[in-house]
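Try this one yourself first.
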């Protein structure tokens, strides 16, 4: 819509419409002042008929036709005014045909009034260089050799002006490079203009009036040219469609791999999606316009933690600082991820970004110790947004930092860990990028909510999160003890612990613990964000089949690695507490272990 266009685009369009209006008005006056005869109307009809059979350029709101032959002929025979009006009429007919596609009015006005400027300027150049009047005013035919250079300049100037006017308009509308649009989509259609000029030269070289015998020979040739060109454009469109489908296949594969990473690393669930949105936005803010590089960053942002599939759970989800040996194991995920992805023949450079996203600007990073601009630009972008999102996300071992605190940390690492230019650009563009990420996350949540509302729930198909009508958790301790004991007997779970959320202190306090290790939890108090249970409370998100050592190691007991599950107890959006359950050795949680036995009973206890 017109109101959504950038100010520069609106000014440009209005200026060209004004210039075109003056040009058309001058041309009409010229034809009335010096009539040119009925031959012009024949060329006008042929132009309108051929112009109606247009071919759309792939991926661009622009069309071409074989009507240029009759446009050139009208200029050579009858002068600039005749050619200008024919182009204006041709653009009007094409625009009226496009109304069925609901094209906005400003595009129609632009085509009708702006594009004739190109033919008027080009034809003025021709007659100035040739030093002649329109051919209908000459008593003798003009030798073709004398017209070749002026005609070449005419054709070139007309093509450059016409294509540039459209390319600049599209560039201002889309906010991209005009030269790139012209080079990729218009440069090669110059042959269409030169072909039209050549046929026009043949038509007028031996006569200064139109003859139907000549038209009878030329028109079939133009029809063959049109059909050949239409076939070529159809093949190009098929190729583009195939590339789009192939890219969708790649992205589907990437999405599947990303889901595998998310399932492996429950602590950083959702992290890779936010990193992807930040990375693409930051790359564009930096001026990265190569779509191949953008696609590489888009894919690498989803896959940068692929190597974590080879990192043990107890390291990946550890709620405290890693030991030296554990950190060495964790660092391998960058090179392992690159090795895994190297077997996929991506059409863009994904692997180098994944391998080097933990390299530091000063060369102290891993795995290869690259420094400065040796690090791929995609990896430098990814490392900054990866760090920022990690700092602003809750972890079992710490609460998240505020946005200002995280930006301050990035600023401190500027020139040491991260590219100074990328840090400066990210800090400047952060409000815009954050708004975009929040909007997309809200849209995704809304869509998920609609899908969830339309689904028919099955008691054993998901982990339900009950709501409560009244009462506090503490007042139902005896009932909870009985319920947890009953649930333990039915499911065979080792331990069940219920933490109440204290609004006064903002902590999680154990009010019920059932099992052989219940004495380890009694009177325990956890901060929000601490260990797996605290992380679940902070994020209102369940963690299923995590490593029990993440929850039990702070008790000082030597425990084997088993599975534990922590589930938030919610009253709408209000957090009441967290239920943490521990499975016996070698046993994984199934949905029904919690959904049918525990949740249904707890739901009834508070009604």
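Now uncover the answer:
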């Amino acid at each position: 819509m017109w109101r959504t266009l950038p100010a520069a685009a609106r000014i440009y369009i209005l200026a060209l419409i004004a210039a075109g209006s003056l040009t058309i008005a001058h041309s009409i006056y010229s034809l009335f002042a010096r009539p040119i005869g009925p031959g012009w109307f024949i060329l006008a009809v042929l132009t309108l008929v051929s112009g109606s059979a247009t071919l759309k350029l792939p991926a661009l709101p622009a069309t071409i036709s074989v009507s240029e032959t009759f446009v050139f002929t009208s200029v050579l025979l009858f002068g600039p005014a005749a050619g200008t009006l024919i182009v204006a009429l041709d653009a009007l007919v094409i625009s009226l045909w496009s109304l069925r596609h609901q094209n906005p009015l400003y595009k129609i006005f632009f085509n009708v009034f702006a594009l004739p400027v190109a033919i008027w300027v080009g034809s003025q150049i021709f007659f100035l260089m040739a030093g002649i009047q329109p051919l209908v005013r000459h008593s003798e035919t003009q030798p073709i050799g004398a017209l070749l250079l002026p005609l070449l300049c005419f054709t070139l100037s007309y093509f450059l002006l016409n294509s540039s006017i459209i390319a600049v308009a599209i560039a201002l509308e889309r906010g991209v490079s005009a030269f790139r649009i012209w080079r990729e989509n218009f440069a090669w259609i110059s042959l269409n203009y030169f072909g039209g000029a050549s046929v026009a030269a043949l038509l007028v070289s031996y006569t200064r009036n139109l003859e139907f015998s000549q038209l009878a020979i030329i028109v079939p040739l133009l029809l063959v040219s049109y059909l050949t060109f239409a076939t070529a454009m159809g093949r190009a469109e098929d190729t583009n469609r195939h590339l789009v489908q192939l890219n969708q296949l790649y992205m589907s594969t990437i999405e599947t791999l990303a889901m595998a990473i998310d399932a492996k690393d429950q602590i950083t669930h959702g992290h890779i999606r936010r990193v992807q949105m930040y990375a693409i936005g930051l790359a564009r803010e930096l001026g990265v316009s190569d779509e191949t590089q953008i696609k590489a960053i888009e894919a690498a942002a989803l896959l940068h933690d692929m190597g974590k599939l080879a990192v043990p759970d107890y390291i990946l989800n550890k709620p405290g600082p890693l030991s030296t040996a554990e950190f060495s194991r964790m660092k391998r995920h960058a090179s392992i991820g690159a090795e895994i992805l190297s077997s996929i023949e991506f059409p863009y450079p994904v692997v180098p970004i994944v391998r080097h996203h933990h390299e530091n600007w000063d060369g102290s990073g891993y795995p290869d110790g690259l420094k400065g601009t040796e690090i791929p630009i995609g990896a430098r972008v990814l490392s900054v947004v990866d760090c920022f999102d990690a700092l602003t996300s809750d972890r079992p071992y710490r609460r998240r930092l505020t946005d200002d605190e995280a930006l301050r940390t990035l600023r401190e690492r500027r020139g040491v860990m991260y590219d100074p230019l990328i840090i400066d650009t990210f800090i400047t563009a952060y409000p815009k990028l954050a708004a975009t990420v929040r909007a997309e996350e809200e849209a995704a949540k809304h869509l998920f909510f609609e899908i969830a509302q339309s689904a028919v729930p099955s008691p054993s198909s998901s982990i339900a999160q009950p709501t409560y009508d009244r009462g506090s958790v503490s007042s139902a301790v005896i009932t909870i003890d009985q319920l947890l004991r009953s649930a333990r007997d039915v499911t065979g779970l080792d331990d069940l612990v219920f933490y109440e959320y204290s609004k006064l202190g903002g902590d999680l306090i154990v009010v019920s613990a059932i099992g052989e290790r219940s004495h380890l939890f009694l009177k325990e108090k956890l901060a929000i964000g601490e260990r797996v249970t605290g992380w679940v409370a902070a994020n209102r998100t369940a963690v299923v089949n995590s490593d029990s050592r993440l929850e039990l190691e702070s008790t000082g007991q030597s425990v084997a690695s088993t599975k534990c599950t922590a589930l938030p107890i919610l009253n709408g959006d209000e957090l009441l507490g967290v239920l943490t359950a521990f499975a016996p050795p070698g046993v994984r949680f199934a949905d029904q272990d919690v959904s049918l036995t525990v949740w249904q009973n707890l739901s009834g206890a508070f009604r």
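Discussion: The first helix runs from residue 7 to 33. Residues 447-478, 591-607 have pLDDT under 50 and may be disordered.
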